[in-house]
Amino acid sequence: xxxxxxxxxxxxxxxxxxxxxxxxxxxxxxxxxxxxxxxxxxxxxxxxxxxxxxxxxxxxxxxxxxxxxxxxxxxxxxxxxxxxxxxxxxxxxxxxxxxxxxxxxxxxxxxxxxxxxxxxxxxxxxxxxxxxxxxxxxxxxxxxxxxxxxxxxxxxxxxxxxxxxxxxxxxxxxxxxxxxxxxxxxxxxxxxxxxxxxxxxxxxxxxxxxxxxxxxxxxxxxxxxxxxxxxxxxxxxxxxxxxxxxxxxxxxxxxxxxxxxxxxxxxxxxxxxxxxxxxxxxxxxxxxxxxxxxxxxxxxxxxxxxxxxxxxxxxxxxxxxxxxxxxxxxxxxxxxxxxxxxxxxxxxxxxxxxxxxxxxxxxxxxxxxxxxxxxxxxxxxxxxxxxxxxxxxxxxxxxxxxxxxxxxxxxxxxxxxxxxxxxxx
Length: 425
Description:
Elements: H1 2-14, H2 62-65, H3 69-84, E1 87-92, E2 98-100, H4 105-111, E3 113-115, E4 118-119, H5 120-134, E5 136-143, E6 149-155, E7 160-165, E8 168-174, E9 180-184, E10 188-192, H6 204-207, H7 209-227, E11 234-237, H8 244-258, E12 275-278, H9 283-286, H10 288-302, H11 321-348, H12 351-354, E13 357-361, H13 371-383, H14 389-395, H15 418-424
Antiparallel strand pairs: 1-2, 1-13, 3-4, 5-6, 5-10, 7-8, 8-9, 11-12
């Protein structure tokens, strides 16, 4: 088969072994040089496919689900938090350490500019939003003649189909004009959420459509309730029978005079024996807020988001908010960090290059919001000699100082090598 052989060619070319550029034409972008004509991911009509419409359920789509504040908040806080964390390309050292590979072609792509039109932040946030909506996020990797990724173009999941041909995975992208573009697996960055078949991620919104549909129905019920001035329903009694025309006129006049928020609390004037009988507030109306509160917690569980991160502080206290913050980093963001790091390594680096290059989120950036925790962390790092002052200053975006590359001598811990020197004397 041609694909494994081509993969080896690409691996050699990426390491810069001087292969002729003609060898890379097999993988060069068919859209290179076409600028805006490249099919940037856009929403199309297939995104509005209705899931679970029937049985009294509200229509659920990725777009309609976003109208729920809890869904919006969960997707917004995860995608925004992940996107703001720098994604750094490192070069491994022989002593086990690593340095920022600022001269590597991926450094700028992942740290600053994903493609000609999108910053790294916008690219990461968009891809993560799709992951949380559809369970999949895809990007086409545009490669130059030297085998280097020069642009990463998002592909909307609704426009992509995956097929296995000859033992290899191929992706089809549908353009605005209906034309399909086929690309092999090594030209595509494919991030997946939870899977059951090992190929395509599950959409959280489609999987939990009944839960989301229920919350949309509650939202619609509340909107209609308050549109009527937050008044319960009632019925009119007239002492004589009314024909259809009179009945229709009475209904319209009553709704026009007393319906809606603008007419709330107006005094009704009843004539000719007309009586109004209000209905009491039902148990559903009385428990409206409780139903909303339960729905917020339910959606937070779907996305594994601590309630306080979406402004639900009902059960949060000053004692447990710190632990919830740790859970947010480890349980919510942690798996997504690993997903990005491993998929990028597998997609944009050859096996040989992956031994030298490491792609990693700068997790320490999350600590910047907590000055007390940051100070305690650095203090212990300096005291126990696993950081030097200049490393601390670098993480705090400060310039190095003279002598800052030496370990600090403290009263609680001896300097490395000091004990050996004393023993020798």
